[in-house]
Design goal:
CATH class: Mainly Beta
CATH topology: Jelly Rolls
Distance between the termini: 38 Å
Structural class: alpha+beta
CATH architecture: Sandwich
Largest sheet: 5 strands, antiparallel
Number of strands: 9
CATH superfamily: Jelly Rolls
Strand order of the largest sheet: 1-2-9-4-7
Strand content: 25-35%
Mean pLDDT: 88
Radius of gyration: 15 Å
Low-confidence stretches: none
Shape: globular
Helix content: 25-40%
Oligomer: single chain
Length: 146
């Protein structure tokens, strides 16, 4: 079962800067966001989110790796600096895939309500997320066409 851990906020803010959807935020914005972010540890093979569960927020991989699955099919492998769950920030639909820690991992979880409390005054956050979602949708469409 995931375990909350203490993580230095200054280091978390630095790590958040490397995430594509948050990269344009200022240092003070990242420090504020880091205060609202919970860091969890996962053992290898442990479920992070399950398909069908309510989407409650965005996950950022700080250390380790995760595998995105649909049934027995692996859809992708994500590593440190990558994220998942961004769709749950925008809708109330259930998770569309399972995500399992591929190795011992630390992940930052930003709950939906915490994100919107922050993003309400930070429109560039929303624009970055929408651009990344568009890139991922295009990649998925290309993969289907190939």
């Amino acid at each position: 079962m995931s375990t909350p851990v203490k993580f230095p906020q200054a280091e978390l803010a630095t790590r958040l800067k490397s995430v594509s959807i948050l990269g344009s935020l200022s240092g003070s914005q990242l420090k504020t966001l880091a205060k609202w972010t919970e860091v969890l540890t996962f053992d290898a093979g442990e479920s992070v989110v399950q398909r069908g569960d309510p989407g409650d927020g965005l996950y950022l991989i700080l250390e380790g790796a995760a595998e995105v699955r649909r049934g027995n099919r692996s859809l992708s492998r994500l590593s440190a600096g990558q994220f998942f769950g961004e769709m749950s920030l925008f809708d109330d639909l259930p998770r569309s895939a399972d995500v399992v820690a591929a190795e011992p991992s630390k992940m930052a979880r930003l709950q939906k309500w915490e994100f919107w409390g922050f993003a309400a005054s930070q429109p560039n956050v929303i624009l970055n997320i929408l651009a990344e979602m568009s890139r991922r949708l295009r990649a998925a469409n290309q993969a289907l066409a190939d």
